[in-house]
Amino acid sequence: MTVTGGEVRPTATSTGLRAYDALLFDLDGTLVDSGAAIERAWRGWSDRHGLDAERVLETSVGRRGVETVALVAPHLDSAREAGNLEAGQARDTVGVVPTPGAGIVLAAAAGGPWAVVTSGTRPVALARLRAAGLPVPTVLVTADDVTAGKPDPQGYLLAARRLGVEAGRCVVFEDTWPGVLAGQRAGMAVVGIAGAGLGATVTPDLVVDRLSRLDVRWSSGTVSVTLRPAGDRGDT
Questions:
Q1: pTM of the shown model
Q2: Transmembrane residues, as ranges (predicted)?
Q3: Domains of the chain, with CATH numbers?
């Protein structure tokens, strides 16, 4: 951490992020493994409309449903199609489970301000959090709350405002490149969860293969997110 004029300022290094004021989590792929449910929804929709499912799935990574539909099928009513897709996903939680370490990290996060910022709608987010047995945060920013999805920073900035925390004092946890860009464009530190969705075009402040590699600790009103020692993988 850095002290400037008596104020402790956040610092980011290759081993961790220290002296931040809030934690903001993406949902799908970060806190919950919902990949199978998402794939079922988009493949079924693609088949019904004669679209290339692989292209649709690739386009959907990190994006709101309405924006994905607009990109891959501009001839369709994106709001109506996305609404139908989201309604189906809220009902289908088969196979939705917490990602490794999500439970322990959220238990630690509860020591201070935290939020979830997702590209899904509120019904989908609530259904998946409950299916995974994870707590529902007081601040939950969903696709319903913004006019532009990730990589636009709107969702993360809104979460910071609702928590009453400066954007530059927040840590974002993301597993996709649009999400990482959204956090960075909001002026926040970003922890990237390595995987296909992260891609090679973004550079988070810290990258891990799973949340269980992280040690989250609150002390004197600020939070630090650091790498666990080698061999200690936490909740696997």
A1: 0.90
A2: none
A3: 2-33+95-227 (3.40.50.1000), 35-91 (1.10.150)
